[in-house]
Amino acid sequence: VQLQASGGGLVQTGDSLRLSCTASGGTFSGYTVGWFRQAPGKEREFVAAAIRWNSNPLYTDSVKGRFTLSRDNAKNTVYLQMNGLQPEDTAVYYCAAGSPILSGVRTSTSYSYWGQGTQVTVSS
Asked: How confident is the model at residue 28 (pLDDT cuts 50, 70, 90)?
């Protein structure tokens, strides 16, 4: 499965962006799809995940109420709608797919397939 992330850009504080992650050479069916981000000088961190056995996405606390993850199985695409963006959201955002157990959903090493990343920059 190859993943293609897109939708990043340069925005101002409070603006919105929608990231897309599209799979090719396979489908997202049966996979947990996660979004991670990595800011300069920091470790990659979990943002959100669409868990394969649960219809309710999982979010890290800092994005709850601002980010919304959704899946379009017909388009083989997972979206991350990001509202109310803040400068601390600035990072390269990566999508990933895999089959982690619940305790591993937030861990990047639990995912087998990764997109190339898309830059999100939020100016203050």
From this structure: confident
User: Following CA atoms 78, 83, 86, 87 in sequence, which dihedral angle do they give, to the nearest 10 degrees?
Assistant: 40
- Name which of 18, 15, 21 is nearest 2 in CA terms: 21
**109 Cα distance to chain centroid:** 15
List C-alpha distances in Å: 53 to 70, 111, 124: 14, 15, 38
Average pLDDT rounded to a whole number, residues 54-65: 94
**Phi, psi of 60, rounded to the nearest 5 degrees:** -75, 150
Q: How many CB atoms lie within 10 A of CB 11?
A: 17
Chain center to CA of 93: 6
